Amino acid sequence: MLQDKIKQYSEEINQFTPTSAADVEQFRLKFLVSKGLVKALFDEFKSVGPEEKRTLGKVLNEFKQLAEQKFSEAQAQFSGTSDTQSKKEGDLTLPGEGFQLGSRHPLSLARKEIVEIFKKLGFVVSEGPEIEDDWHNFSALNFPPEHPARDMQDTFFVEKKEGNDIALRTHTSSVQVRLMEMGQPPFRAIMPGRVYRNEAISARAHCFFHQVEGLYVDENVSFADLKQTLFHFVQELYGEGTKVRFRPSYFPFTEPSAEMDISCTICKGEGCQLCKYSGWVEILGCGMVDPNVLENCGIDSKKYSGFAFGMGIERITNLKYEIRDLRLFSENDVKFLSQFETEII
Ligand code: DAH
């Protein structure tokens, strides 16, 4: 009997307590779609007698309203969690939602800027593999066999091989070796890339980061060329008037070696938290390519000399954008990333 059915389904609807958007959708499919129960009962209604029609018509309409009301309440409860019917039937005259443009990663922006400056000085871009052997990462670069940087602590080893371990490169200096092995001077190259070190991740250290290596080898290249090239680079990158200073240092692959500081880009040398109130921040290591390295790569160190330098792109980026936590670079947080330049192609 139609009346009994209406009663039974009304009870079911009253007891319906959805716990998910999927339940709401099930409800819609059961009662409200064109092959659903509400429609079926209306069809059945057509064939009842005139007497019954009068009483049942009202009951049936109330039943329909009950189902619809229950559905819209349930839908409101879970709105946003599923593509519900009303959304599908949304107002087609409303303007579209548009799409969000991506932005360049700050590290890519910094790398691009560094590369552009050196390109204008005649440097070409060169790249090498991230999985490297001991020869290119260490031995050819004049690291003595017992040098602490070869220690398991710093290096991620991929494979232990007699005399030539395979590891993730710990610096882009390995690309210098690959480049020089391929031919004879002059070499004038800039080598950006990702490097890996076995470090605990914190705001100030990461197990992977990015470097740019530079190499200039020719006849009669001197330390004066090194200083002038890097001085020019800093003026271009951080603006005219940025001061530089060189401090003696040690790297196995350069002799003499130096570290270069620039006047703090944040406080302009006055002293702030970033420069630890010294007015200076270190940005790169550099030096004259050690003759041993040239010879290891088949280059006559009596005829040729050169300079090399290496800098961390994260460091350069932090100074430009005042980013204080290295982890931000690899977390893919859109709120962070969308603050940077949007590239319209
Ligand atoms: N490879 C060094 C590092 O990762 C950086 C470096 C220092 C590169 C001096 C050079 C250089 O080419 O001459 O710390």
Helix-strand layout with pairing:
Layout: H1 2-15, H2 21-32, H3 37-45, H4 50-77, H5 85-88, H6 106-120, E1 124-125, E2 131-133, H7 134-137, E3 157-159, E4 166-168, H8 173-181, E5 187-196, E6 208-218, H9 223-238, E7 244-251, E8 254-263, E9 280-289, H10 291-296, E10 305-312, H11 313-321, H12 334-337
Parallel strand pairs: 1-5
Antiparallel strand pairs: 2-4, 3-4, 5-6, 6-10, 7-8, 8-9, 9-10
Helix pairs in contact: 1-4, 2-4, 3-4, 6-11
The structure holds 3,4-dihydroxyphenylalanine.
Write up this protein.
With 345 residues, the protein is of the alpha+beta class. It has 2 domains: 2-82, no CATH class; 106-337, BirA Bifunctional Protein, domain 2. It has 12 helices and 10 strands. It has helices spanning 2-15, 21-32, 37-45, 50-77, 85-88, 106-120, 134-137, 173-181, 223-238, 291-296, 313-321, 334-337; strands at residues 124-125, 131-133, 157-159, 166-168, 187-196, 208-218, 244-251, 254-263, 280-289, 305-312. The strands form 2 sheets. Strands 1-5-6-10-9-8-7 form a 7-stranded mixed sheet, with helices on both faces. Strands 2-4-3 form a 3-stranded antiparallel sheet. Strand 7 (244-251) and strand 8 form a beta hairpin. The model has no long low-confidence stretch (mean pLDDT 91). Bound molecules: 3,4-dihydroxyphenylalanine.
